[in-house]
Design goal:
This protein has 183 residues and is mainly beta. It has one domain. It has two helices and twelve strands, in the order αβαβββββββββββ. The longest helix has 13 residues.
Length: 183
Amino acid sequence: MKKLLILAVSLLSYGAVNAQSATSTAQQTVQLNLSNVLEITFVASGTATGSTVSLPFTSVSDYANGVSSSAQQLKVRTNKNFSVTVQANAANFTYTGAANPAPAMPVSGVLAIKVPANATGGSIAAPFSSTAYTTLTNSPQNLINNGTNGNNKTFDIQYEATPGFGYPGGTYTVDVVYTATQL
């Protein structure tokens, strides 16, 4: 027992055994190569092509006062601030019907829009507004200024047509084009 005690005392007097820790590191760079992205779609369809907006004129009151559509919502997704323009794709509506010769109904002065809701972070460009209708043309018109980047930047459009009594029955069609551009 004396020998064991002497051995224990001898170890204590020399100190504990030093253990060295070993470390090793590795490093790697991760690089993100981002492209500028921009998309404008109609919320109802989820695509760049919205459903047809039908404005039926069935009474004298419709011809006298015009007919309005329900709100149509568009969504912009972009990693940069943006603007939106609007234009008709032609100066005149395309006519389908029995009248011969085909009547030429201009878009300007007949088809108008307003922006009843705007959640783009930007402003509605004059002369457009959230309360009054502004006529469309076949030239690009500023609609939304300085929209902010994001995933769900929406705005609503509402159409109003006031052709008056100068055109025969038939179907009058025009495409309205919304163009989003990064700033």
